[in-house]
Design goal:
By secondary structure, the chain is mostly helical. Helices cover 52% and strands 8% of the residues. It has helices at 9-18, 24-34, 37-53, 56-61, 64-67, 76-83, 126-145, 149-154, and strands at 3-4, 7-8, 100-103, 112-115. The strands form two sheets. A two-stranded antiparallel sheet has the order 1-2. A hairpin with a 2-residue loop joins strand 1 and strand 2. The longest helix has 20 residues, at 126-145. The radius of gyration is 22 Å and the shape is elongated. It comes from Salmonella typhimurium. This is Hexulose-6-phosphate synthase.
């Protein structure tokens, strides 16, 4: 049995849960006591800056090199990965999470455009793949506007 200072963990957890507020107003006060509004303000500011850099009409006209990570430029994907951390952390997966990228793979050191099979097959051109990725991105944005969570979950970029 797990114990801490000779008190069973089960007892410690039960006491901790019992000490939590039980009605909504108490829960709200409990939350607000430690809530840091500066984090939310920073997140909203970062989101606003991102939306100014990438308004919807810009995304519709975006080129492959404006989009991909790996070219050493301030691309859409590089911005998404780095500049949105306060409100939408996308780190942890490979660059394939963006559908298409420019770079190497573990098995091939050649630097070139690479993409996931969700957006094209071996006969697909980079232009065709990027058109599919961009369509998925625009669909994802529209689904978000409509709060269509099923469509968001089913989107190949999600």
């Amino acid at each position: 049995m797990l114990e801490f200072h000779n008190v069973p963990l089960k007892t410690i957890l039960r006491r901790a849960i019992m000490s939590l507020p039980t009605n909504f107003n108490d829960i709200l006060r409990f939350f607000e006591k430690d809530y840091d509004t500066a984090k939310e303000d920073n997140a909203l500011s970062a989101r606003g800056q991102f939306l100014q850099l990438y308004p919807l009409n810009h995304l519709k006209k975006m080129t492959l090199d404006d989009y991909v990570i790996g070219k050493g430029t301030a691309s859409f994907c590089a911005c998404v990965e780095v500049k949105t951390r306060t409100w939408a952390n996308m780190q942890g997966a490979t660059a394939l999470k963006f559908g298409i990228y420019y770079g190497k793979s573990k098995s091939d050191p050649t630097v070139r455009y690479r993409f996931t099979q969700k957006f094209g097959d071996d006969d697909s051109t980079n232009k065709e793949v990027f058109a599919n990725v961009k369509d998925a991105l625009l669909d994802l944005i529209q689904s978000g506007k409509e709060l269509d969570f099923r469509a968001i979950d089913e989107n190949p970029l999600s």
